[in-house]
Write a structure and sequence with these properties.
The chain is mainly alpha-helical and 114 residues long. Helix 1 packs antiparallel against helix 2, helix 2 runs antiparallel to helix 3 and helix 3 packs antiparallel against helix 4. The radius of gyration is 15 Å and the shape is elongated.
């Protein structure tokens, strides 16, 4: 039986929610922001997933650092939507992005200690 990996599950779930939000934006004829948001938002999970099979601790930390950069970029696009009066917002998605940033930060810090 495989142990549940919280960060992998959370980042995959987040990617699915990003896809749904981007589809909503595109249905409202918003095309530029969803393109960027989709790339950065789904890249978080891809990097976290890839880090699970890293070649070394340094490689793991590097992949997680890329994931956190993508999470920060995703947060930027979500804040931009929030500040733009003509864009819909998703507070849950923003909160999830902030949570991912905190979790990944802790993972990076604890990985550097060992």
């Amino acid at each position: 039986m495989q142990t549940k990996n919280v960060i992998v599950d959370k980042s995959l779930d987040f990617s699915v929610e990003v896809i749904k939000f981007c589809e909503l934006l595109e249905s409202q004829r918003k095309f530029v922001v969803p393109r960027q948001l989709l790339r950065s938002g789904t890249s978080i999970g891809a990097n976290v997933f890839e880090a699970q099979h890293a070649e070394s601790r340094a490689d793991f930390i590097h992949k997680m650092k890329v994931a956190i950069k993508e999470a920060n970029e995703t947060l930027y696009w979500l804040i931009l939507c929030e500040r733009s009066s003509s864009y819909p917002t998703d507070a849950n998605l923003k909160n999830s992005a902030e949570e991912l940033i905190k979790i990944i930060s802790k993972i990076i810090l604890s990985s550097k200690k060992y």
